Amino acid sequence: MVNILLGVGNPLRRDDGVGNYVAAGFRRQGWMSLDCGTVPENFTGIVRREHPGLLVIVDAAEMGRSPGEFCVVPKERLRDVSFGTHQLPLDVIVDYLAHSAGRIVIIGIQPLVVETGEGLSPPVREGADRLIGYLERGDPDRIPVFR
User: Fold this and answer.
1) Which range in 39-43, 52-56, 88-92 is most confidently predicted, on average pLDDT?
2) Which of 146, 55, 133, 137 is closest to 97 using CA atoms?
């Protein structure tokens, strides 16, 4: 059984592209890593076909934290967090995929700069690299939960 990571965001809006950065940098055997851009709904067919044991969705999220800080956002708290510039709200996508994955984990990373431009700010890049390390070591349960 494969696990899937979906990186969501717009790399032309600086730190909003952190999910794309994580998807591009994450490599682990038994995982499929997909850069969804701003349309994660276009990748739901892959998730439904593969039926992953674990689906991880990574996106920039305004959570009132320090830039680069990341945490798991429980489904019931998704409306309390401001996610990036994608088409459908993440809770709609999670509901749609609920029976297509064994477990779904949404990870938000606090952005610093979300304006037109390219490249992540240094603290967000450092946070993204730390997150990639957690995921590559198989430690998603050690990621703090948004409260």
Assistant:
1) 52-56
2) 55
pTM passes above 0.90 = yes
85 pLDDT tier (thresholds 50, 70, 90): low
Single-letter amino acid, residue 125: R
Q: Are 106 and 36 in contact (CB under 8 A)?
A: no
Tens of pLDDT, residues 130-144: 999 999 999 788 999
Q: Of 113, 73, 111, which Cα lies nearest the Cα of 93? A: 73
For residue 75, how many other CB atoms are within 10 A of its CB?
Answer: 14
In sequence order, what are the residues at sequence separation of 6 or more whose Cβ sits closer than 8 angstroms to the Cβ of residue 60? 9, 15, 16, 17, 18, 19, 83, 84, 108, 109, 110, 111, 114, 124
Q: Count other C-beta atoms under 10 Å from residue 54's C-beta.
A: 18
